[in-house]
């Protein structure tokens, strides 16, 4: 796994304090690491730049990017992911990663609005950021449909990888069970058990004006769809 993210305030964007914990909880960096799930590399903040992404992506089966994202329906090239240097990863940059993405089974865009698409004034469809990863060779992409909460997104991603690492679930089912764990306020183990039996009952990673749904959840509960429902899987669901 190659995991990269932005936790500090950069380029006029607010900090995302949960990103560092998200990456550390997901990636097993060495044998002494007691926290990670998948073996890989972590590049945070200033280390998260395009050249580092390009150099380390080739042999990575999973790419995880936790940062700010913005979808601009006016022109597809105006949509982007924020790099840790404050620079922007735009569709033309993603196109340059085609040779590196050919072995990538999963790209997870842990950011805002990365799954959105739209139409231009002339009716021509505009593809979101996720499309460019699929078009450049990634087999599947997990992306978001609206602006997401930093706390709940970090928790959702950790649970998604915990469930996926069990080896018992497809990518799509692991995402679904992680979402259900937030909906029903359950632990990951409870969700995995439920999937076996077939039963079961504030910072944003993007730009926008805060709304009522952007506030902190009550206690540790993220039952409102705002928290658990934004992420979808595009491409190969297995």
CATH architecture call: 3-Layer(aba) Sandwich
The separation of the N and C termini measures: 18 Å
What is the mean pLDDT? 87
Strand order of the largest sheet: 4-1-5-9-12-13
SSE inventory with pairings:
Elements: E1 2-5, H1 19-26, E2 27-28, E3 38-39, E4 41-44, H2 50-56, E5 62-66, E6 69-70, E7 80-82, E8 88-89, H3 91-95, H4 98-101, E9 106-110, E10 118-119, E11 125-126, H5 129-135, E12 140-144, H6 150-164, H7 171-183, H8 188-197, H9 225-228, E13 231-235
Parallel strand pairs: 1-4, 1-5, 2-3, 5-9, 9-12
Antiparallel strand pairs: 6-7, 7-8, 10-11, 12-13
Structure keywords:
three-stranded antiparallel β-sheet, six-stranded mixed β-sheet, Rossmann fold, single chain, alpha/beta, 238 residues
What can you see in these coordinates?
It is built from 9 helices and 13 strands. It is an alpha/beta fold and 238 residues long. Strand 10 and strand 11 (125-126) form a beta hairpin. The radius of gyration is 17 Å and the shape is globular.
Give a summary of the structure in a few sentences.
The chain is an alpha/beta fold. The chain is built from nine helices and 13 strands. It has helices spanning 19-26, 50-56, 91-95, 98-101, 129-135, 150-164, 171-183, 188-197, 225-228, and strands spanning 2-5, 27-28, 38-39, 41-44, 62-66, 69-70, 80-82, 88-89, 106-110, 118-119, 125-126, 140-144, 231-235.
């Amino acid at each position: 796994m190659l995991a990269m993210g932005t936790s500090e305030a950069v380029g006029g964007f607010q900090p995302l304090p949960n990103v560092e914990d998200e990456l550390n909880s997901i990636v097993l960096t060495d044998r002494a690491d007691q926290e990670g799930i998948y073996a890989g590399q972590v590049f945070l903040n200033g280390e998260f730049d395009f050249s580092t992404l390009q150099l380390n992506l080739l042999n990575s089966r999973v790419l995880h990017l936790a940062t700010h994202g913005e979808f601009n329906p006016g022109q597809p090239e105006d949509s982007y992911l924020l790099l840790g240097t404050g620079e922007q990863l735009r569709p033309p940059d993603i196109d340059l990663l085609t040779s590196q993405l050919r072995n990538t089974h999963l790209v997870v865009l842990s950011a805002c609005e990365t799954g959105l698409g739209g139409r231009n004034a002339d009716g021509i469809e505009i593809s979101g950021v996720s499309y460019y990863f699929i078009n450049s060779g990634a087999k599947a992409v997990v992306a978001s449909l609206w602006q997401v909460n930093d706390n709940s997104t970090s928790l959702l991603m950790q649970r998604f990888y915990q469930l996926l690492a069990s080896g018992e679930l497809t990518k799509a089912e692991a995402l679904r069970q992680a979402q259900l764990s937030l909906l029903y306020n359950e632990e990951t183990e409870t969700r995995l058990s439920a999937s076996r039996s077939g039963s079961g009952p504030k910072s944003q990673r993007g730009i926008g004006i805060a709304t009522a749904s952007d506030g902190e959840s009550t206690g540790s509960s993220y039952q409102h769809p705002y928290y658990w429902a934004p992420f979808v899987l595009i491409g190969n669901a297995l």
